[in-house]
Amino acid sequence: MITATHRHAQLIIDRQAIYDNVQNEIKRLKKGTDLFAVIKADAYGHGLLEVAKITKQAGAKGFCVALLDEALALRQAGFEEPILVLGVTDPDQTPIAANHHISVAAPSLAWLQQATPFLNKDAQTPLRIHYAIDSGMGRIGMRDISELQAAVKLVREQRDAFEVEGIFTHFATADDPNPAYFNKQVAKWQEILASLDEKPRYVHVSNSATSLWHAKCNGNMIRFGLAIYGLNPSGRAISSLPYPLKPAMSLTSELTFCKQIHAGDSVGYGATYTAKGDEWIGTVPIGYADGWRRDLQGFKVLVDGQYCEIVGRICMDQLMIKLPHEYPTGTTVVFIGRSGMHEITAQDVAEYEHTINYEVVSDFMPRLPRVYVGLENQQ
Ligand SMILES: *Cc1c(COP(=O)(O)O)cnc(C)c1O
């Protein structure tokens, strides 16, 4: 996909914020607990390689990604840290992971059985695996002790194919103020974990929410994702944080056009907005094909420290806003970030769209350039 560098619309990524969020979390961790930076989905839209570099500088000991391709991109860029693929890797592609020293989740006994012949044939080194335990997330993982025991037995018989590096589970409600389901998962996890006679190098359960609010559950590694980017995994449900999270992403553009319209004049496809009197309307070159969704019609942006409503339907590449008065083309328009006394956050956008901040930041398309600021000397 083409990145539009000749258009004044960009995601600005504050390296210092990412660095500080990671360091603040590392300071809270018990000695011997490693932070792995979760940088799947292009680092939640913030840029895979750049975020890998910053989080490593800040003390991350490894990386988690969702897909084998994301792990391979890190290896190709020269990162030698441990990398764990959290999703299900195709059994026939496990030799690729093994040969690049990429660790993968082992989601079931059947998966181990399916991967074994491929590894025996094509892997030059054993595949590092983390047993995935489904303690209640209902996504991937082994669900009972007997399956795990059978997996352990298979892996012990297949030492050339597998090397056990970790065991983990994932919580469904760590961001919920009500701990009932969380506690149920913890109990199930502990019961399954206790059935292992030998613990692997990494025992881990914590996403951002778990480490922020249930740190006593952390094993000796955490999978720290959303909070790296300065966003609260609970949205607004749990506002108390052990340290202030610093949002790393802003989205800004500028006016490309400004005009006055009059009573009865309409704006945009479907003519859904009609002026009641004289109004100044600005045009901004961002649209739904950038990931600024069409249902954000009626939401606000910031111009010169003032909230301005998005009027008319959002187009694929442009949208219109109502200005308090005339502004010259080139005037900055803030979609996410600060202007004057006000701030629009990814959380604000998420609430208007009835979704979560995770989706807002990871939805921005590659067409929008990522511009990195801060920590200038650490290029
Ligand atoms: C995405 C993911 C994480 C990171 O979650 P955050 O809420 O972003 O911290 C951790 N573990 C697994 C298994 C994941 O899929």
UniProtKB/TrEMBL annotation:
Pathway in which this enzyme or protein is active: Amino-acid biosynthesis; D-alanine biosynthesis; D-alanine from L-alanine: step 1/1
Superkingdom to which the source organism belongs: Bacteria
SUPFAM superfamilies: Alanine racemase C-terminal domain-like, PLP-binding barrel
Annotated GO biological process: D-alanine biosynthetic process; peptidoglycan biosynthetic process
PANTHER family xref list: ALANINE RACEMASE, ALANINE RACEMASE, CATABOLIC-RELATED
Family affiliation: Belongs to the alanine racemase family.
Name of protein: Alanine racemase
Gene for this chain: alr
